């Protein structure tokens, strides 16, 4: 069975990026990063730290757009009878997004 992709991904692939798969991946994930950033809009509204918000938001958008969809390998952790597989792209992506959220809140 072939994966048709998400509605947002198909929109970028067919309408915006003219069937350029890599560019559609970057745009789709960048949009998700933008939505994550907009989700934290209450922080600069309450604290007034707009420069920090813009810089951290740019970090979130770039991290999501450039790292999240790549195959960077995995870490295999053996925990007795259970084996856990951790993807480097997820570790890097969510670690940096969490750090950017922390920076928005702290500074």
- Indicate the percent of residues in helices: 55-70%
Order of helices and strands: HHHHEEH
Number of helical runs?
5
Q: Sheet bearing the most strands, described?
A: 2 strands, antiparallel
Portion in beta strands = 5-15%
What is the terminal-to-terminal distance? 48 Å
Read across the widest sheet, the strand sequence of neighbours is: 1-2
What's the count of strands? Answer: 2
Number of domain units: 1
**What structural class do you assign from the helix and strand content?**
mainly alpha
Uncertain runs are none
> Using only CA atoms, what is the Rg?
17 Å
Report the principal-axis shape.
flat
The overall pLDDT, averaged over residues, is: 94
3D architecture notes:
By secondary structure, the protein is mainly α. The chain has one domain (7-106). Helix content is 66%, strand content 11%. It contains five helices and two strands, in the order ααααββα. It has helices spanning 7-16, 21-39, 42-47, 50-66, 88-106, and strands at residues 74-79, 82-87. Strands 1-2 form a two-stranded antiparallel sheet. α1 (7-16) crosses α2 and α4 runs antiparallel to α5. It is flat and about 50 Å long. It starts with 6 loop residues before the first helix and ends with a helix.
Short description:
The chain contains five helices and two strands, in the order ααααββα. The chain is mostly helical and 107 residues long. The model has no long low-confidence stretch (mean pLDDT 94).
